[in-house]
Amino acid sequence: MASPLQDDDGIFERLRKQNEDPKVLEERQQAVNERIHTIYQKAQTRLAELIDQNSTLPCTISSVQVLNASHTRKGFLEKVLSPLLSSNKDHPYTLAEALQEVGACTDKLHKFDIFQQPISVYLDKPSQTDPSTTPTDLDVYLSVKERSRFLLKTGTDLGNAEGSAYANALWRNIFGGAETLNLNASLGTRTRSAYQATFETPILSDPDFRFEIGALASDTQKSWASHEEVVKGAWSRLRWMSAAGHRHELGLNGFWRQVTGLAGNASPSVRENAGDSVKTSISHTWTKDQRDNPILPTKGFYAKTLSELAGWGPLKGDVSFWKSEIETQAAVPVPIPGLKGDSGISFTTGFRAGLIYPLGMDSNSKPQLSRINDRFQLGGPTDVRGFRISGLGPREGPDALGGDVYAAGSANLLCPLPRVGADKPFRLQAFVNAGRLLALKTPQGASPTSPQEVRESVASTLSELANGLPSTAAGVGLVYAHPVARFELNFSLPLVLRKGEEGRKGLQLGIGISFL
């Protein structure tokens, strides 16, 4: 017969084993988490009901304070936050309006990229001993945590048919006004070396209105045209976003380019462009992006235009032209009859086109024909799939010379992988894409030598784009949308090729952030 002491020992042993059982511990933790979540949900519901019941009550914001922003200038923050104060408003807030304005203000602070998320917001009543306060006054406190001011990063990059190793140094919030200095150095398979420094600052404490200056030195191997290009230069840019969400960028650019390192079999046209060239230009970029995902869109549209004026009027250099490009993309989800919710199937289309219009320099009205540095290149895994890099357009011997006018389009059907699901970043795709790249030629097939001939050559070259079928390829492939880049492995089959163009039948790997 067991003694009472032995019975107690057995009970304690069973309790100890129960406490050590991973399954029991997991169930207890899950129950605790569910209880906490329920309490949180009830608190949020009560808070929402309380705010809703008092949403029309009048209130005034008497002060706004930012806590823990030790490296950020007070004057910089005042420009951001002063519109919140009721003294700067022509009518009082309701509680709902005040909360909405505070939320918009914290969103604005996030855009400067100097504070960690989230920014905590606290509301309090001012001291009743202050005779200047009123019963409707509220004090707003924003508790922030500043992001690290210094960041040093090294790694490797894959994109746009190139691999590289890089080192990047970032100095954030330099003078306490969200200024940023970014230094970057990289060595790659195609861009042999690149060194870049940029300084950016917001204007008038507006995160959507920024000024940037930068400098660049790079050495790029262009094997498709039997040469290397060395570029050194600087730029200044003004960026802003309109109330409708349109992004603009206005730039002044100055670059010294060298076509050097010619291969032994370089064509006469490439040799003619060898040596130094200086370009000074102004540029404007407009962008509108309403896609749900820029890397793998399933709905929405994207549009971008780029205009550049070089070597005209006060702009100096030895090249003179007007260059314009347009890029669009649209995506629509494809519903499946009988299937509720998102099927994960989408249909996307893309279109790109560009034109270089030669201009005269200074008092010389004779147009300056485009150089190989400035011409468009077309073909490769990130634009017209099924062709080699720069495989479309005018050629001379082994070299792709580029062109002055181009147009390219694509249509893609993307489907989720079986047994993977629509929420995963993997897709099967079927595509067809096409394009043409042409040099400016007069109706007689010669290069233009006068403004009149330039106008005629532009008209005849644009009409030639629609003459016959464009160079076309189709295929199927696998797409993986990583947060920083898109990976495509496609099997492509060229369907239409012109004389001299280089197709790519078989597997083709594309890595980049912008695909046709």
Automatic annotation (TrEMBL):
Keyword Membrane assigned to the entry: answer is: yes
The record ties this protein, via Gene3D superfamilies, to: membrane protein fhac: a member of the omp85/tpsb transporter family (2.40.160.50)
- Stated family: Belongs to the SAM50/omp85 family.
Q: What is the recorded name of this protein?
A: Mitochondrial outer membrane protein
What the entry lists under Pfam families is as follows: Omp85 (PF01103)
Q: How does it sit in the membrane?
A: Multi-pass membrane protein
Which species is listed as the source?
Coccidioides immitis (strain RS) (Valley fever fungus)
GO CC terms of this entry:
mitochondrial outer membrane
Q: Where in the cell is the protein located?
A: Mitochondrion outer membrane
User: What keywords does the record list, in alphabetical order?
Assistant: Membrane, Transmembrane, Transmembrane beta strand
| The organism's place on the tree of life at top rank | Eukaryota
User: Which stretches are annotated as coiled coil?
Assistant: none
Which intervals hold domain Bacterial surface antigen (D15)? 173-515
Primary location class: mitochondrion
Tell me the GO BP annotations in alphabetical order: protein insertion into mitochondrial outer membrane
